[in-house]
Design brief:
Layout: E1 3-8, H1 15-21, E2 23-26, H2 32-39, E3 46-51, E4 57-64, E5 69-70, E6 80-95, H3 96-101, H4 109-112, E7 118-121, H5 123-132
Parallel strand pairs: 1-3
Antiparallel strand pairs: 1-7, 2-6, 3-4, 4-6, 5-6
């Protein structure tokens, strides 16, 4: 199992929307590196949903529920998507400022590559992020 952070602009699609829908197709990713990360996902992987924009915080836990596949809305087979389902909202949001303040996250893609919409998370980082959200 792998761990991921999926970034979204809450005005476009928020964790509230994911909770309401239960499950969604994680689409709209065009960056080549982010698409490589999606191609590396497998069903059962876990993800933290991060609200970008004004919030800039981890909001909730989700699970990848499908293997990657070509986006059926596009004619480009390189543009892949996965199905994601809501698991649970974090007890407290984990702000980007708190993540940046912790030296354990110096190599985390959310810190190093702030524009990347899909980033892998190492197991130790994952445990600490979950702990920060409880």
């Amino acid at each position: 199992m792998a761990f991921w952070i999926l970034k979204t602009e809450p005005a476009s699609y928020s964790y509230d929307d994911l909770e309401r829908d239960g499950q969604t197709i994680w689409d709209g990713v065009a960056n080549a590196q982010a698409l490589i990360h999606i191609r590396n996902m497998t069903a059962g992987d876990e993800a933290l949903i991060y609200h970008s924009g004004d919030e800039r915080a981890l909001i909730g836990l989700a699970q990848i529920v499908s293997a990657p596949y070509a986006d059926p809305q596009l004619a480009d087979p390189k543009r892949v998507v996965v199905a994601v389902r809501a698991v649970q909202r974090l007890a407290q949001p984990v702000p980007l400022s708190a993540i940046k303040a912790d030296p354990q996250f110096a190599q985390l893609g959310l810190v190093r590559q702030s524009r990347l919409s899909v980033v892998p998370v190492a197991a130790g980082e994952w445990s600490r992020l979950i702990e920060m959200g409880t």
